[in-house]
């Protein structure tokens, strides 16, 4: 509908529409944190002015105005007026109000009679009339007040912040028009929710966005919680594995959780905290066991149905990059940043005896694949060299005729003549992050640094091969897999912390 060529040279940190929607304001991340007002439908700039030398977190138009708005941020509150094509502001005056001192403000809401409410980093809410402080609502939350929402329809105010749930308190509260009385809501997601980052209200319901990426719908009357969206939290999602016989997948993330998803219903079935950032995950061929590789060099074996711990081991001090069961479920291969692949015997129980480790690997491990007969491992490395080792001997296979005769149980390598065509023109070696061949062996999907999922024929031996491309991820794609029946493709994102499910038609 409109593209505004912004004067914000380093990025835009916040945007907000005016009451009628005719005006749009934007805030830049440059040192002056410039505030610019636009007539966005015409694509024209109305005016622009330096906002504040310190960071601005929120700028909101009053819900009944196209000319007045408030900005809050590090140790400041400013009340702005747009008049005659120019921006003017008045600083918030604290005066002699008890407990009143200028704090870092994180959120803003509005009331009738020119009232403004700002949420502070210490949990207080400041109540202003015009630009003068009237009073302080002390400890509206026990931690920062990250978000506030109000409508002039009934004037009730929703706040969200950091607060452990108790009988009287919680991370979401609904207040009267003067913020003198409130009702706290207990958010029920199966785990305690104590940090809320976004709230919205309408039609008798409150919509809540949490720090951990969940979206929850709460009924105002019955206080019932309905989890609309579950998600990994901070850090990228690196590990991904599809169940060998069911429409299920497991993801592993830097947020120290692994999560079991139902691909058909698109719902979270189970999640477990593993204590440290998790980097890779793999089902055994029978779907009974789950192996998880950790960023700290440890790896875990879990019972797949319950996600209960079965065994754990740590022979490395750096991140485990990929982990694989052999098709006969006798062996477990563990590839690390330390340029090694350790092979363990898992048939003798939780003792996990290390049989050998493959050396002479020139760089860290990218991907591992077992042969169908469990006699070979294919290793893709960080210098973009592919190697094949015998197991359990650990001997490097250098005879290309032997390698050509191997049938692989899986193919996730981005290297080799069989996948030469997945690399685009002028690509850096790091541009293609992940790949997976379908179980039927007819197609290969890839994920790259540009957020693209691509589908090729397999084998893909011609350079710059024809393909179909699919958009969705906002950042690099970290991993990709076909479901057991090739009905779905699952892809995971890095900075966007997302899991995408694509239907294969």
TrEMBL record:
Organism from which the protein derives: Lates japonicus (Japanese lates)
GO molecular function terms listed in the Swiss-Prot or TrEMBL record: microtubule binding
Pfam family, one: Beta-prop_EML_2
PANTHER family per the UniProt record, alphabetical: HELP DOMAIN-CONTAINING PROTEIN (PTHR13720:SF33), WD-40 REPEAT PROTEIN (PTHR13720)
One GO term describing the cellular component: cilium
Keyword entries, A-Z: Microtubule, Repeat, WD repeat
Protein name: Echinoderm microtubule-associated protein-like 6 isoform X1
Domain EML-like first beta-propeller: 8-217
Superkingdom per UniProt: Eukaryota
Record's keyword annotation contains Zinc-finger: no
Residue ranges that the Swiss-Prot or TrEMBL entry lists as coiled coil: none
Domain EML-like second beta-propeller span(s) in chain numbering: 237-504
WD repeats: 237-271, 313-354, 470-505
């Amino acid at each position: 509908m409109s593209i505004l060529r912004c004067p914000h040279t380093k990025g835009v940190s916040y945007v907000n529409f005016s009451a009628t929607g005719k005006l749009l304001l934007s805030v830049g991340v440059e040192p002056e944190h410039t505030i610019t007002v636009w007539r966005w439908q015409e694509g024209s700039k109305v005016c622009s002015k330096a906002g504040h030398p310190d960071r601005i977190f929120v700028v909101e138009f009053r819900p009944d105005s196209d000319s007045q708005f408030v900005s809050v941020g590090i140790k400041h509150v400013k009340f702005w007026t747009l008049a005659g094509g120019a921006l003017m502001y008045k600083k918030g005056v604290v005066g002699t109000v008890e407990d009143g001192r200028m704090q870092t403000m994180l959120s803003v809401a509005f009331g009738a009679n020119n009232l403004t409410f700002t949420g502070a980093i210490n949990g207080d809410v400041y109540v202003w009339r015009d630009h003068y402080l009237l009073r302080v609502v002390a400890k509206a939350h026990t931690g920062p007040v990250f978000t506030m929402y109000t409508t002039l329809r009934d004037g009730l105010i929703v706040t969200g912040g950091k607060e452990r749930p108790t009988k009287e308190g919680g991370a979401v509260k609904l207040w009267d028009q003067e913020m003198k009385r409130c009702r706290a809501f207990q958010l029920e997601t199966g785990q305690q929710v104590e940090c809320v980052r976004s709230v919205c209200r309408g039609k008798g319901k409150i919509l809540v966005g949490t720090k951990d990426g969940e979206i929850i719908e709460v009924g105002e009357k019955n206080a019932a919680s309905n989890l609309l969206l579950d998600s990994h939290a901070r850090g990228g999602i690196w590990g991904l594995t599809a169940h060998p016989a069911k429409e299920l997948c497991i993801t592993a993330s830097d947020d120290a959780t692994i999560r079991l998803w139902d691909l058909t219903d698109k719902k979270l079935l189970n999640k477990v905290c593993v204590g440290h950032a998790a980097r890779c995950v793999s089902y055994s061929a029978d779907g009974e066991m789950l192996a998880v590789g950790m960023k700290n060099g440890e790896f875990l074996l879990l019972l797949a149905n319950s996600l209960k711990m079965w065994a754990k081991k740590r022979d490395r001090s750096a991140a485990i990059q990929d982990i694989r069961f052999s098709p006969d479920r006798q062996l477990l291969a563990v590839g690390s940043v330390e340029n090694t692949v350790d092979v363990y015997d898992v048939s003798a129980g939780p003792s996990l005896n290390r049989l050998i480790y493959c050396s002479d690997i020139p760089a860290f491990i990218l991907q591992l694949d077992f042969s169908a007969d469990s006699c070979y491992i294919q290793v893709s490395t960080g210098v973009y060299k592919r190697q094949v080792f015998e197991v359990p001997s650990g001997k490097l296979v250098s005879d290309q005729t032997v390698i050509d005769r191997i049938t692989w149980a899986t193919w996730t390598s981005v290297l080799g003549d069989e996948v030469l065509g997945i690399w685009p023109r002028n690509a850096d070696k790091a541009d293609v992050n992940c790949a997976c061949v379908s179980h039927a062996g007819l197609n290969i999907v890839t994920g790259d640094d540009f957020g693209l999922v691509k589908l090729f024929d397999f084998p893909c031996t011609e350079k710059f091969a024809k393909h179909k491309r699919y958009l969705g991820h906002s950042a690099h794609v970290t991993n990709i897999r076909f479901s057991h029946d090739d009905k779905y493709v699952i892809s995971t994102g890095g900075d966007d912390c997302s899991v995408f499910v694509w239907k294969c038609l």
